[in-house]
Amino acid sequence: xxxxxxxxxxxxxxxxxxxxxxxxxxxxxxxxxxxxxxxxxxxxxxxxxxxxxxxxxxxxxxxxxxxxxxxxxxxxxxxxxxxxxxxxxxxxxxxxxxxxxxxxxxxxxxxxxxxxxxxxxxxxxxxxxxxxxxxxxxxxxxxxxxxxxxxxxxxxxxxxxxxxxxxxxxxxxxxxxxxxx
Length: 181
Ligand SMILES: CC(C)(COP(=O)(O)OP(=O)(O)OC[C@H]1O[C@@H](n2cnc3c(N)ncnc32)[C@H](O)[C@@H]1OP(=O)(O)O)[C@@H](O)C(=O)NCCC(=O)NCCS
Known about the structure:
About 30% of the residues lie in helices and about 35% in strands. It is an alpha+beta fold. The protein has a seven-stranded mixed beta sheet with strand order 1-2-3-4-5-7-6, sandwiched between helices. Coenzyme A (COA) binds near residues 43, 108, 142, 145 and 148.
């Protein structure tokens, strides 16, 4: 079987990939990567880049059940992922929303898959029950990635976003974590 590491070797982005919980020293790279997608993509409906001040606040205010992880390639952040609360109402407490962002220079090298696989293991270990991915309908790559991990499309909200001068639909995908009943 060809592994993402095999593929990276073949495609010249060699180097072992590792995933670990994010540290404050990763936040600048995390923010730069995220802001790239804010500026250039509908994968986030945020329109203004995040400041480092708000990034630090975002990181420091997270609960232990809502981790942030980074993928390191040759010791540099090549992607990050996070679990966030789906809703503030208490009865939603075992439902989380996931995020995965991969450096555009390193896409299609298995990094998104590695981050998502790791994140889902953490979600299971943390006792979460349902994982929701809210994905802009134009992001077919992200929809395909989540489908590979067993996420099912459970809904589509039409024209709920407006970015780059056009209305955008959001596809909701959900994974129920077996064993976490
Ligand atoms: C979506 C994203 C995380 C995928 O990361 P990645 O490292 O490129 O994904 P992988 O290399 O692990 O791809 C795994 C599979 O997902 C699917 N996939 C990923 N990107 C795809 C694309 N652009 N088009 C079609 N399928 C795609 C494929 O099935 C792929 O397997 P394959 O390469 O063997 O065909 C990355 O493109 C990204 O950061 N996009 C912008 C941010 C975003 O949309 N994040 C998700 C919001 S939660």
